Amino acid sequence: MITSTVSLLLACAVFVVYDYATLRNSISNKLVVMADTIGTNSIISLEFQDPGSAHETLSALRLEQHILTAAIYSPNNELFIEYKAQGFENIHTPKNPREDGEYTNKTKLTLFHPIISNNKRVGTIYIQYDLKEVRKALLRYVFIVLAILLFSSLLAFCLSSRLQKAISKPILDLAQTAGEVSSNQDYSIRSKQNSHDEIGILVDHFNEMLDRIQSRDMALQTAKNSLEERAKEKFELILNAAGEGVFGVDLEGTTMFANPAAEVMLGYSPGELFNKHQHQLTHHSRADKTPYPEDECPIYSTFNDGKVHHVQDEVFWKKDGSCFPVEYVSNPIMENGKLAGAVVTFKDITNRKQQEKDLIGAKEEAEKANRTKSEFLARMSHELRTPMNAILGFGQLLKLSKRDSLSELQTNSVDRILNAGNHLLELIDDVLDLSRIEAGGMSLSIEAVELEPLIESVLPLIEPLTTEVNVEIENNIDSNPCVLADQTRLKQVLLNLVSNAVKYNRVGGKVTLSCQTISTDRISISVSDTGQGIPAEKQNQLFQPFNRLGAQDTEIEGTGIGLTITKHLVELMDGSITLESTMGKGSCFTIELPMTKSAEFEYPPATSTTSVESIEESECSVLYVEDNLDNLTLVEQILTQQTNIKLISASRAQKGIELALAHRPQLILMDINLPDMSGLEAFKRLQSIEETQDIPVIAVSANAMQKDIDYATALGFRDYIVKPINIPIFLNAIEDALKRKPDGST
Length: 746
Known about the structure:
By secondary structure, the protein is an alpha+beta fold. Among the domains are: 2-130, 2-Layer Sandwich (Beta-Lactamase), CATH 3.30.450; 242-348, PAS domain (Beta-Lactamase); 444-596, Heat Shock Protein 90 (2-Layer Sandwich); 620-739, Rossmann fold, CATH 3.40.50. Helices cover 48% and strands 21% of the residues. It has 17 helices and 22 strands. Strands 11, 12, 13, 14, 15, 16 and 17 form a 7-stranded mixed sheet that branches. The chain has a 5-stranded antiparallel sheet with strand order 2-1-5-4-3. It has a 5-stranded antiparallel sheet with strand order 7-6-10-9-8. Helix 11 runs antiparallel to helix 12. The radius of gyration is 55 Å and the shape is flat. Mean pLDDT is 80; it is low at 601-617.
């Protein structure tokens, strides 16, 4: 009833508002029509400035009793003529018009409307309309609506009072019955029928609905029981077909079920495990036969924490007393939100254990083979470098000596010996590097490396080659980006790329270095040349070892391994290398590396050549411990030209230690591979003796592996000279050692 009353009230309110709006719009439209009419009739009066005829036009408004006042304004917005209704002479008329449009207050509606002639505004008309009658009509509407609403409410109350017993009570009874059915889930409850009218029909339909629901509920229960039976059968089928062992235990650890696979693996007959204490049968001991307490068993832990426990390496015990390794998973069983036990799935991992054992054995064999290979490479490097030391050393002496000058033919022969020897030495170094990379033995020290100083340290090393072949190097790397790389190996990569670009260029050509930021964390470095280029069909062979793409038939020296090593080194530094080449125009190698923030790193200056006579004049003694006569003779001849150096030699480490104690030399040159003890052990003994511990020691060895160099440097050797000896570098190292004081200062 209340809802009906509110709806009626809203309907009446909408009607009143709509009627008022309609009346308001009607008045507005009427005023606009009147304004257009008066304006049209006043055009001539405005043009001829005839207020009299305009006043007659406005006087016609006295026929409209609700118009209180009106006026006409000239084109310059001045009051031209006005009209006021009888009895409203005191109403104020605006001296100037407002903007065109309607203005409304509580009792009046004002209109300002343009007067148009030939699409030109010639004035403005003003009309004021009285809205009092409209408001009186609105109040009458409101009183009528309230009267109707009051009458309707009284009538509705009377009707509802009489109909409550006939309609409301049966409906309430029906709602109560529906509530009982819903709360008790008892579909046998029925609602009583007290009449045969519409309410009675509703009760009949409700009871019929309960009959159908009850029938369907019984059918669903029957189907549920059938599904549970089928699920149980399928569960048993799955258990029987599972290849892994599966068993279930309750909270007491008693076996509730076990599949055939579990029974077979544990050695029990079908059904023999049922109702048996599982832990006592199969999990009572560890692999070493020590007792396995139940409170430490992961299966029992599932009962306590309700979590899945996965164990990869334990043993289960068979009926015959033997055990086998297993991997098992214990999953909790939940019933109505409570723990009821655990399901355990397990598998025999005997084969896996054997495979792991075989894999470990194979790994050890591979590591042993790798160590053998590394030892072989180190030994071969040493054995090859030892004779090369004499060949290249004496060759350098012949060329550098200023006392016994060579003829042009002899100089040419010596150059050929040195070129061939250096080529062979380069080949040895490249083969060793490639072998270390392929064996996974190349260790890198990745750090932040500033590119600009690294390039500056590379270019002087290439300068002699550029002078020889008349090739210009243009360095366009004017910024100083920082990359993540191994400083030594990146220098090796750049040295190889730039030297190749020079060697395979044309006479008078150019090599250009540039870099470009690819993204926030990657940068590319390009080395381009103006050579002949590389044919497209041969570019896929470029990084194959010992493949020089036909350059072996030219006078250009090379090993054919440099680019292979370069590619491997770049990839080890998380980078990549690509090639773009055009026949007749040149080639461009681009390496891409990770970029990082700048770092402080001081790069050593490029090695400069030193004359054999550059050591300062001061008498000093140098002890050389070397068992190879050729190497000893070479160093003797190198230092013979140094008049201020007295050389003492020993072929055994022990003898060298004794000479060091007796003569206290200013410098010791130590070979590493000596007959009685290694040069490393001899160095340690010298360091342990107070009289010799401050004497600087330089290692001179054919052991060229980086790990050997790093170990000797970390041990405390002043320097490490790799055979074959580069005489200028060798003399620089001696000069630097002799200049330095025991504390390292100069």
